């Protein structure tokens, strides 16, 4: 890709749009995490979607800048510096990996790869949801907050549906879909590791905030899986309608 194409008006417009979408998605739906002075959000979905559709540059810029702006606007400035770097790396890795499909020798190998990833994704979502998001939950929607009860069975059901959906798409619709799932999960784990390191070693000295870093690992894994659950089917629908985007 040439330098001129990278900075075309279309790419600039897409980058601006997805930066705004990441920010809005992050701010619209959030759950506070007192142990780390942070919050769960669904902004990951737009970070993943921007990277899958438009590649590493858009994914990195929209993920880093959009998420950082959300931290500042929501009153979490102590996370803004880390978010800029971590979410930019996440978007860049997802976009870069998605473009580098390995060449398995048969569709059967692709299907087995997708099967394993589907089971892992469903298990993680079910386990994290049942362990950390069941019972009484405080939910923030924009400026409004309210409490409600979320049964553990909801997460078990959602985990099963996630596994079956990924396996179905990989087996019947697109044998190489497993690599897309792998790209998203890899980028998500970069996010999980990045925030753990920041909370463990940097947020205390920089902002005098005590954060139980290990407490947010499952929270961020859940954020990653839910973001992937939202982004992957949307990307699939857009690729079907606009197949040239899948080659970006």
Describe this structure in words.
This protein has 248 residues and is an alpha+beta fold. The protein has a single domain, classed as Arp2/3 complex 21 kDa subunit ARPC3. It has nine helices and four strands; from the N terminus they run ααββαααββαααα. It has helices at 3-6, 9-28, 44-74, 80-98, 107-132, 152-173, 177-201, 203-207, 216-241, and strands spanning 29-33, 38-41, 135-141, 144-150. It has a four-stranded antiparallel sheet. Helix 2 packs across helix 3, helix 3 crosses helix 9 and helix 5 (107-132) crosses helix 9. The longest helix has 31 residues, at 44-74. The chain is globular. The relative contact order is 0.16.
- What is the strand content? 5-15%
What number of domains? 1
Shape: globular
CATH class: Mainly Alpha
Instruction: Briefly note the structural class of the backbone.
Output: alpha+beta
Give the fraction of residues assigned to helices. over 70%
Could you give a short account of the major beta sheet? 4 strands, antiparallel
Mean pLDDT: 85
CATH topology: Arp2/3 complex 21 kDa subunit ARPC3
Q: What's the helix count?
A: 9
Oligomer: single chain
- If you compute it from the alpha carbons, what radius of gyration comes out, rounded to the nearest whole angstrom? 18 Å
CATH architect. name: Orthogonal Bundle
Report the end-to-end length measured between terminal Cα atoms: 10 Å
Order of helices and strands: HHEEHHHEEHHHH
Low-pLDDT regions: 1-5
Number of strands: 4
Strand order of the largest sheet: 2-1-3-4
């Amino acid at each position: 890709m040439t330098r001129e194409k990278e900075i075309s008006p279309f790419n600039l417009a897409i980058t601006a749009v997805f930066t705004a979408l990441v920010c809005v998605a992050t701010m619209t739906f959030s759950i506070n995490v007192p142990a780390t002075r942070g919050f769960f959000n669904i902004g990951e979905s737009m970070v993943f979607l921007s990277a899958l559709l438009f590649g590493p540059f858009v994914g990195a810029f929209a993920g880093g800048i959009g998420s950082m702006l959300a931290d500042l606007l929501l009153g979490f400035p102590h996370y803004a510096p880390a978010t800029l770097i971590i979410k930019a790396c996440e978007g860049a890795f997802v976009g870069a990996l998605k473009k580098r499909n390995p060449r398995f020798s048969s569709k059967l190998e692709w299907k087995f790869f997708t099967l394993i990833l589907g089971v892992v994704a469903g298990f993680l979502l079910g386990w994290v949801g049942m362990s950390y998001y069941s019972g009484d939950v405080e939910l923030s929607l924009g400026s409004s907050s309210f409490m409600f009860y979320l049964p553990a069975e909801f997460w078990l059901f959602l985990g099963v549906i996630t596994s079956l959906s990924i396996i179905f798409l990989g087996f019947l619709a697109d044998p190489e879909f497993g690599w897309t799932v792998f790209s998203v999960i890899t980028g998500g784990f970069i996010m999980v590791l990045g925030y753990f390191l920041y909370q463990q070693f940097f947020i205390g000295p920089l902002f005098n905030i005590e954060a139980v870093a290990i407490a947010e690992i499952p929270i961020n894994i859940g954020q990653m899986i839910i973001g992937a659950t939202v982004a992957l089917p949307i990307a699939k629908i857009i690729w079907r309608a606009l197949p040239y985007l899948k080659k970006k």
